[in-house]
Specification:
The structure holds 3 protein chains of 3 kinds. Chain A contains 2 helices and 6 strands. Chain A is α+β, with helices and mostly antiparallel strands. In chain A, the strands form 2 sheets. Chain A has a 4-stranded antiparallel β-sheet with strand order 3-4-5-6, covered by helices on one side. In chain A, strands 1-2 form a two-stranded antiparallel ribbon. The longest helix of chain A is centred in the C-terminal third of the chain and has 14 residues. In chain A, 31% of the residues are buried. Helices cover 23% and strands 32% of the residues of chain B. Chain B is built from 5 helices and 11 strands. In chain B, helix 2 packs antiparallel against helix 3 and helix 4 crosses helix 5. Chain B is an alpha+beta fold. The chains are: A alpha+beta, B alpha+beta, C alpha+beta. The interface between B and C is large, with 57 and 61 residues. The structure holds zinc ion (ZN).
C-alpha cells in the first residue's frame, strides 16, 4: 500500500491506481529465431528476483494507462524513483555502468 | 466515419436513445437542490464524447486540432479546458476526451477528421460508450472519499484525474457546482449503486439538471 | 458467583458514570443494572460479578483483569441474532439500555466447566499438549478438533445475514495522531495550531486516555479534566483538525498508510440506531507524518494462582475507581515493583476501601510512604505475593520476603486476606503499530520496557511521544512531546505555537523500579509439579511459567519458536499483558538477558476487526462491478436467466413458462438453426486501431497474417502470449488501409487492451498506431440463422444484402431501423449470420426493432448457453474454456491460423519451436462422441484408456466442453487427449473413456466439427 509518483500524470497516487507489470528492461531478443532454446527460455522465464533494489515496470491502469519504470526496494517497499521509459533507461544504464 | 445526419432515415423509424442510467428513471425523480440532503447527483445524459489521440511533439497535430476547434489543446497533465462547444479533457500524454452536446458531436468530429487528414492521429465517436454524473451538495466530497483513493484536496477546478471508484476506474473533475464523474457505459449501474450506497448516511437526492450540458 | 449481587458502586467526584441514568442489561441470562458511561466490565464489577469466563485449556474460572484493549479473559458474546458478535472484550463494550451479553467460554456452563476437571490433572496438559496427544490416527483429527473447539469456546459467529452496513473512508492528511491521551492531545493541538491538516484517532468513547484514570493530577495548575477539556475545545474550533473517537488504528502499512476502524453505533440502544448510518467504518489514512501516542499497558506480576477472579492490574483497579466509581472490593492488596500503583492505592483508600501495599522493593518512595501513612495504608516493603489463595475468587495472599539484590525468597511472610488483588510490574509501551511495517523496539533496562525513540523513524515520517517512548511521567512526556512536535512541524515547513500552554504537573518524582517479573515462591523447581500452583503468563491461552520453562528444557531457543510452541501471545489480545513477562521468563530460563532474547513480531491487526468493516461497500450488489449491456431491462422482461462472464452479466437462456434450462436451450438452438435467433454480443471487447503501421502491428500481435486483408473484409485471429500459448481470439475488420477494428473475447478485453498498449509503448514505439477501447460504444446484436437476411432486409435498405454483394467475412456500413450501423457478416454458429453494431444509446431500440421485424419468423433471443452449443456443434473454441493458458494453436489443430512465413517473429512464434511445445504428441483438442447419445459427459471428466480404473490409471486429458445437441439429437463434446489428432484417425485407437463421478463412459474420438463440415449453411 505505497504511493507512486506517475511520471506522466506528474502526481503522487495511491498504489490501487497502478498495476505491476513485471521486471523492467527485459529486452526481447531482436532475432528470436536464432536464439537457442535456453536463451529464449531465459528471456521468457528467468527473472532477477532480487532482494533489494529492483527495476520494475508499472502501468497507471486507472489513470493515464502509460507504462513506466519504478525502482523499488523489494525488502522494504521503499521507492527510489519513477521515470518514463526513456528517462528510466538513462538512470538504469548509468547505474549499471557504475556497478 | 458515419454520415450521422439522420436525414436518410426512412420515416417509419423513430429511433430512441437511452442513456446508460436510463433504467434508474432519474428524470422523474429529480428535484431542485435544497438543504434536506447532503449529496445531490444526477446523470447528464446523452452527451457527445469524442476520443482523440495524437502526438504533442508533432506540431502539425497540435495546430490541426487547435485550428479545428479554435482552442489550445490542454497538454498539461491532468488539465482540462472549457470551451464554447463543451470541454476537452487531458487523459494521457497522447489522449484526450472531448465532451460536447450530442447535436454538435458530428460537426466537431468532421472538423477534427478533416483537419487531421494525413496526420497520425485517432478520432473516434465514443458517445455510446460514456456518460457523466454531476455530484453536488455539502457532503459531495465526503461521499467521494468513501469511493475513491484520490486526494480530493488536490482536485482544483480545471483539473481532471483518472482514478479509482470502488473497484472500477473513472475520470473525476471539479467545477464550480461540485464534481463531475465521467465513466464507461457498462459500469454505470455499479457506479450509481455504489454512489447511492455511499451517500446514504448523508441523505441522497436527485438533482434537477439546469444547464449542465 | 453472580448471585452474590454486591454493590461495589461508590460516589466518586470525578467518575464519568452518570448515576442518574441507570441502564439495565443482562449477562449470561441474568439481569443487572449499570449506568450511562459504564463499560460492560465496569458494570459487572459494580455488581460484584467475578467469574466472567472459563479458561481456554484448563477451564479455570477467570475474572476481569484489565480495563481496555489488553483484557485477555473477559471475552463476551454481545447481542443476538444477526447482530451477535463474539469475543468482544467486556472492557471495551460500552453499556446501553437492553444490552444482552453472554459468555463465550465454559462448556456446559460458566459455573461448571468440564475442562476444569482436567485442570486438577494439568500435569497432563503441558505446552504442546495438543500436538503431542492428538497426533494419531489421522482420521480422528476432525473429531478431536470438534471436541477441542467446543470445549475451548471462543464464541459463536452470527449465522444470520448481517442487516447492518459498513463502509470505507479514505483520508489524506499532513499529520495523523494515534492516541488521544495527554501527549496525543498536546501533539494534535500544536499541529492543529500551525494550520496543517490533522487527524486524531482514539479508541475510547472519550478523549483523555489515562488522564481519565488520574483525575487528581494537576497540569499547569488545572485539574487533568479541565486541562484536557480546554485542549479538546480548542481542537474542536480548528477547521483543519478532525477527531475520531471509538476509532482504533489497527494497522500501519508502507509509507504511513494507517487503517483504523470506527465503531459508530454499537454503543447505542437498538431503538436509537439509525439504519441509514453505518455500524462500523474503516478509515484508510495516508499521512505525511504520523505521531504515535499510543501509550502503554501495565503488565501484572506473575505468581502462583495469579488467574483467580478478583486479581487485576493496578491500573485497572485505579481506572475502575476513578473513572467508573467502582471499588472492585472492600479489602484490597496491591503488589507493585514501582511507583505507579500508589496513586490508585491512595485513591482507593480515600474512597473507604481497606488497602495493603506489598512493594517488592526494599526502599519505597519517601513521598508515597508519607501519603500512604497518612491514610493508614500498611506497606510491606521487600515482600512479594508468591501465591494467591482462593478457589473461585481470590480470598487472600501468601507473602514471601525477597532478596535485596536477587529475585529469590529469603524468608517467609504473613498470609493476608483480601477480596481483590492488584499488581503492577511496570508499563509495556504499545509499540504494535510501530512494528507493523518492520520497526523494532529496543529494551530499556532503566525503564524495564521495550521502547521506541521519540524520533522513532523520523525519515519515514513516524514520530513517537509519551509512554510509548518509555517516558512514563506526565510532565516529562508533555515536555518531550512539545520538542518532538517542533521537529515534526519543521519538517512540514511550519513553526510551533505553544502560547498559553502550561505543561508542568504536580506529580510525585518517580524512584527506580525493581527488575522483577515472576515472583519466586522459594519452592524447589523440580519435583513439585503436583503441589506448585500454576503461575500464568498468558491468560487467554493458558500459558504458564512452567510451559515456557518446559519449552526451554525441550531445547527451544528462539523466542519465535517458544512463542509458537507454547502459544504465548497468540490470543485475540495479542499478548498485550503477557509478552514482556513471557520474554523475561524465557530469558531467565535461557540464562540470557531480555534484549538478547528480543521480542516477537507484531502484525496487524492490533485488535480484532470485523469482516464487515474489512468488506465495507464491497458486499451484496456492490460486491463486484456488474457490467450490463444496453438491453438489460429488455432481457429481464423477456425472462432471461443470467450468468456472470467476467464482470459482465449476460443472458444465459430465456426460459418460457414451464421450461427448464435444457428445454429452453434445445428450443433456442433449433429455432436458430431452422429460422432465426438473436444473441446480445455487445460484451465482446472492441478496440479501434489506427495508423499507417496497423497491419504490421497486427502481424506482430496475432499469429496469423494481416498484410493482405482487403478493406471491407474481416478475419479471425489467434493471439498468443510470448510462451506461444493461446491467450485470446476474435475477428478483426479492415475499415481502411490504416484503420482496423479488433474484437476480443468478452472476458479478455481489458487484458488485451493492456497487452497491445504495453507492446506498443515498450517494444515498438516506432510503429505509428493508436488504440482506443470502444467496447462500450457499440451494442452488438447477432442475428443468426437461415432467416437472418430476411429479418435484416426489413430494417436495412441501404446495404445490398445479397449473397455475392455482401459475402461471408465482409462488413458494411449502413442504416438499420434508421440508425447508423456497422454490419459484419460473420458467424459463430455456422449459420448465415449478421452482427449489427450500433451506438449503444440506440442499442435497446434497435434490438426491439429487430425483434419486431423477426416476429413473422418466430425470432428467438438466445443466451450464452445456446451460443456455446451452436459453436461446439461447429467445433469453434472458447478461449478460457477449451484453452487454459497451456495450449498452442497446434494443440487446437488450428495451424491454419498461424502465419509462419511472416517476416517479423510474431509474439509467441519462437516458443512454438521449443522442444516441449513442438512435440507432436501433446494433448490435442478433438471432438468426442459418447457411445450412448443420451449421455452428456461431465465437463472436466478425465479421459483414460480403458474402463478399468485399477491404479495406476494414465490420464490422457479431459473434457473441456460438453452439451446435448438438439439439432443432432445426441450428445457431443470436445476435449484434450494425448496424441488425440492421430488417434482420431486410427481405427482401434480412437476409443477412450470419460471418468467422472464414479462412472466410466465409452467415448469415440472424432472431428470436432459435428455440423456442416463443408460450410454449406453459412454460404448462402
Ligand atoms: Zn499517470
Amino acid at each position: 500500500m505505497f504511493v507512486i509518483r506517475c511520471p506522466h500524470c506528474c502526481e503522487v497516487r495511491e498504489e490501487e491506481e497502478f498495476s505491476y507489470s513485471g521486471e523492467a528492461f527485459v529486452a526481447r531478443p531482436s532475432a528470436p529465431e536464432i536464439e537457442s532454446d535456453e536463451n529464449w527460455g531465459d528471456y521468457l522465464f528467468m527473472k532477477r528476483n532480487v532482494k533489494g533494489w529492483h527495476w520494475e515496470m508499472w502501468g497507471h491502469s486507472s489513470g493515464c494507462r502509460k507504462f513506466f519504470v519504478v525502482k523499488r526496494n523489494t525488502a522494504n517497499h521503499s521507492i527510489g524513483g519513477a521515470w518514463s521509459l526513456t528517462e528510466a533507461r538513462k538512470e538504469y544504464d548509468a547505474e549499471e555502468a557504475n556497478a | 466515419m458515419f454520415n450521422s445526419s439522420q436525414s436518410n432515415q426512412t420515416s417509419q423509424f423513430k429511433p430512441v436513445m437511452q442513456s446508460p442510467l436510463h433504467p434508474f428513471g432519474l428524470a422523474a425523480k429529480q428535484e431542485k437542490v435544497n438543504g434536506t440532503k447532503g449529496v445531490w447527483a444526477n446523470e447528464v445524459p446523452l452527451l457527445g464524447y469524442i476520443s482523440l489521440r495524437g502526438n504533442v511533439q508533432n506540431a502539425a497535430f497540435i495546430n490541426a486540432v487547435n485550428s479545428a476547434l479554435g482552442i489550445s489543446l490542454p497538454t498539461q497533465p491532468c488539465s482540462m479546458l472549457d470551451s464554447s462547444f463543451g470541454s476537452i479533457l487531458w487523459l494521457s500524454t497522447d489522449e484526450w476526451l472531448l465532451i460536447c452536446p450530442r447535436e454538435q458531436r458530428a460537426t466537431l468530429q468532421k472538423l477534427l477528421e478533416t483537419a487531421l487528414q494525413g496526420i497520425h492521429s485517432q478520432v473516434f465517436d465514443n458517445s455510446g460508450g460514456f456518460t457523466s454524473v454531476i455530484l453536488q451538495g455539502k457532503n459531495a466530497s465526503d461521499v467521494l472519499h468513501h469511493c475513491t483513493v484520490y486526494d480530493l484536496s488536490a482536485l482544483q477546478a480545471g483539473k481532471v484525474v483518472g482514478t479509482t471508484f470502488g473497484k472500477v476506474s473513472l475520470f473525476l473533475q471539479q467545477d464550480k457546482n461540485g464534481y463531475r464523474l465521467v465513466f464507461r457505459r457498462s459500469f454505470a449501474d455499479y457506479i450509481w449503486r455504489y454512489l447511492e450506497r455511499s451517500a446514504l448516511p448523508y441523505g441522497f437526492g436527485i438533482a434537477q439538471l439546469n444547464d449542465e450540458r | 458467583m453472580s448471585d452474590n449481587r454486591m454493590n461495589n458502586r461508590i460516589k466518586h467526584p470525578h467518575s464519568k458514570v452518570n448515576l442518574n441514568k441507570p441502564l439495565s442489561f443482562t449477562f449470561d441470562g441474568k439481569s443487572y443494572q449499570g449506568f450511562a458511561g459504564d463499560t460492560l466490565a465496569s458494570a459487572l464489577l459494580a455488581n460484584g460479578v467475578k467469574v466472567v469466563a472459563r479458561s481456554f485449556k484448563y477451564g479455570r474460572p477467570r475474572g476481569i483483569i484489565g480495563a481496555g484493549a489488553e483484557e485477555p479473559n473477559a471475552l463476551v458474546q454481545i447481542d443476538t441474532g444477526a447482530r451477535t458478535t463474539p469475543d468482544l472484550k467486556a472492557t471495551q463494550v460500552e453499556l446501553y439500555e437492553g444490552l444482552v451479553a453472554g459468555r463465550t467460554s465454559g462448556w456446559p456452563s460458566l459455573a461448571f466447566d468440564l475442562k476444569s476437571v482436567g485442570g486438577k490433572f494439568s500435569r497432563f496438559m503441558p505446552a504442546g499438549f495438543y500436538y503431542k496427544t492428538f497426533k494419531a490416527p489421522v482420521k480422528m483429527w476432525p473429531i478431536y478438533e470438534n471436541i477441542i473447539r467446543r470445549a475451548a469456546g471462543y464464541g459463536k459467529s452470527p449465522i444470520e445475514a448481517d442487516t447492518e452496513t459498513y463502509d470505507h473512508q479514505h483520508h489524506h492528511v499532513d499529520l495523523l495522531v494515534v492516541g488521544g491521551g495527554a501527549t496525543g492531545l498536546l501533539a494534535a493541538l500544536l499541529a492543529g495550531r500551525s494550520g496543517v491538516k490533522v487527524l486524531l484517532v482514539d479508541d475510547q468513547s472519550e478523549l483523555g486516555g489515562y488522564l481519565l484514570s488520574m483525575p487528581n493530577v494537576k497540569i499547569g495548575g488545572l485539574t487533568a479534566q479541565n486541562w484536557s477539556a480546554n485542549i479538546i475545545a480548542e481542537l474542536a474550533s480548528l477547521p483543519n483538525v478532525t477527531i475520531l473517537t471509538r476509532t482504533t488504528a489497527f494497522a500501519l502499512h508502507d509509507m504511513n498508510m494507517i487503517q483504523a476502524v470506527e465503531l459508530l453505533q454499537d454503543h447505542l440502544p437498538h431503538s436509537a440506531r439509525n439504519a441509514t448510518q453505518r455500524r462500523e467504518r474503516m478509515h484508510r489514512i495516508r499521512a505525511t507524518k504520523v505521531v504515535l501516542a499510543a501509550g502503554a499497558f501495565e503488565r501484572p506480576l506473575v505468581f502462583g494462582n495469579n488467574d483467580l477472579p478478583g486479581i487485576m492490574t493496578a491500573s485497572a483497579l485505579t481506572t475502575y475507581i476513578n473513572r467508573y466509581g467502582v471499588a472492585c472490593g472492600k479489602n484490597a492488596v496491591i503488589m507493585t515493583s514501582n511507583d505507579l500503583a500508589y496513586q490508585g492505592a491512595v485513591d482507593l483508600a480515600a474512597a473507604g476501601v481497606k488497602v495493603t501495599i506489598v512493594d517488592t522493593r526494599e526502599h519505597i518512595n519517601p513521598e508515597w510512604a508519607n501519603r500512604t501513612n497518612k491514610l493508614g495504608i500498611k506497606v510491606y516493603s521487600g515482600y512479594g505475593v508468591s501465591e494467591a489463595i482462593g478457589t473461585s475468587a481470590v480470598q487472600g495472599v501468601k507473602l514471601v520476603k525477597l532478596g535485596a539484590l536477587k529475585n529469590i525468597v529469603t524468608g517467609s511472610g504473613p498470609d493476608i486476606s483480601c477480596d481483590v488483588l492488584a499488581s503492577s510490574g511496570g508499563l509495556s509501551p504499545t509499540v504494535h503499530l510501530f512494528c507493523h511495517d518492520g520497526g523494532r523496539p529496543k529494551w530499556d533496562e532503566a525503564r524495564l520496557a521495550f521502547v521506541v525513540s521519540a524520533n522513532g523513524r523520523a525519515k519515514d515520517g513516524i514520530f513517537c511521544v509519551g509512554a510509548i517512548t518509555g517516558v512514563f511521567a506526565l510532565q516529562e512526556g508533555l515536555a518531550k512531546t512539545r520538542i518532538t512536535l517542533a521537529e515534526v512541524l519543521t519538517d512540514l515547513d511550519k513553526t510551533i505555537d505553544d502560547s498559553g500552554l502550561a505543561l508542568e504537573t504536580d506529580e510525585i518524582a518517580v524512584t527506580p523500579a525493581r527488575h522483577i517479573f515472576h515472583v519466586p515462591d522459594g519452592k524447589d523447581v523440580h519435583g513439585t509439579i503436583f503441589t506448585r500452583p500454576k503461575a500464568f503468563v498468558d491468560f487467554q491461552n493458558d500459558v504458564a511459567v512452567s510451559d515456557i520453562q518446559l519449552a526451554v528444557r525441550e531445547n527451544y531457543r528462539s523466542i519465535e519458536h517458544i512463542k509458537r510452541y507454547t502459544a504465548l501471545g497468540f490470543g485475540t489480545d495479542q499478548g498485550k499483558l503477557s509478552n514482556v513477562n513471557g520474554f523475561a521468563i524465557a530469558a531467565e530460563a535461557l540464562g540470557k538477558t531480555i534484549p538478547e532474547v528480543g521480542t516477537t513480531t507484531y502484525r496487524p491487526a492490533y485488535t480484532p476487526v470485523s469482516f464487515g468493516a474489512l468488506a465495507g461497500a464491497h458486499v451484496g450488489i456492490t460486491f463486484e462491478p456488474r457490467r450490463y449491456t444496453a438491453m438489460q431491462a429488455t432481457h429481464e422482461a423477456y425472462g432471461a436467466e443470467f450468468e456472470d462472464v467476467g464482470q459482465w452479466i449476460r443472458p444465459w437462456y430465456f426460459a418460457k413458462p414451464g421450461e427448464d434450462i435444457h428445454a429452453a436451450v434445445n428450443r433456442e438452438c433449433l429455432a436458430t438453426r431452422n429460422s432465426v435467433g438473436m444473441l446480445d454480443a455487445s460484451t465482446l471487447g472492441k478496440i479501434d486501431i489506427r495508423g499507417k503501421d496497423v497491419r504490421e502491428f497486427l502481424n506482430r500481435i496475432y499469429a496469423n497474417a494481416w498484410t493482405q486483408l482487403a478493406v471491407g473484409k474481416c478475419r479471425y485471429g489467434l493471439m498468443l502470449d510470448e510462451a506461444g500459448m493461446v491467450m485470446d481470439d476474435g475477428v478483426t475488420a479492415c475499415i481502411t488501409d490504416t484503420h482496423f477494428l479488433m474484437t476480443t473475447t468478452s472476458g479478455g478485453a481489458a487484458r488485451v487492451m493492456t497487452w497491445l498498449e504495453k507492446w506498443h509503448q515498450t517494444e515498438w514505439p516506432e510503429l505509428e498506431v493508436y488504440m482506443t477501447s470502444v467496447t462500450d460504444h457499440w451494442t452488438t446484436a447477432a442475428l443468426v440463422g437461415p432467416k437472418s437476411r430476411d429479418v435484416l432486409a426489413k430494417l436495412c435498405t441501404d446495404i445490398d444484402l445479397s449473397k455475392d454483394a455482401f459475402k461471408f467475412m465482409d462488413w458494411r456500413d449502413g442504416t438499420v431501423a434508421g440508425v447508423p450501423a456497422r454490419v459484419f457478416r460473420i458467424s459463430f454458429s455456422g449459420e448465415l449470420a449478421y452482427e449489427v453494431n450500433v451506438d449503444a444509446s440506440y442499442g435497446n431500440y434497435v434490438w426491439n426493432e429487430l425483434m419486431k421485424a423477426g416476429k413473422e419468423f418466430d425470432i428467438t433471443p438466445y443466451g450464452t448457453e445456446t451460443m456455446h452449443v451452436l459453436r461446439a456443434e461447429k467445433g469453434f473454441i472458447i478461449v478460457g474454456q477449451d484453452t487454459d493458458g497451456s495450449v498452442t494453436p497446434f494443440d487446437l489443430d488450428m495451424a491454419w491460423a498461424v502465419g509462419m512465413k511472416k517476416p517479423y517473429s510474431f509474439l509467441g512464434k519462437r516458443s512454438l519451436a521449443r522442444s516441449d511445445t513442438s512435440r507432436t504428441d501433446r494433448k490435442q483438442l478433438v471432438g468426442l462422441l459418447p457411445e450412448d447419445p443420451n449421455v452428456v459427459l461431465k465437463e472436466g471428466a478425465q479421459l483414460i484408456n480403458s474402463s478399468d480404473i485399477t491404479p495406476p490409471v494414465p490420464m490422457l486429458g479431459h473434457v473441456t466442453s460438453s452439451y446435448y445437441s438438439a439439432f443432432l439429437g445426441r450428445s457431443i463434446a470436445m476435449g484434450f487427449v494425448i496424441d488425440g489428432i492421430k488417434r482420431r484417425d486410427e481405427e482401434g485407437r480412437n476409443i477412450v473413456y470419460a471418468w467422472a463421478e464414479g462412472k466410466a463412459v465409452k467415448v469415440k474420438i472424432v472431428s470436432s466439427v459435428f455440423v456442416d463440415a463443408e460450410g454449406a449453411r453459412h454460404n448462402v
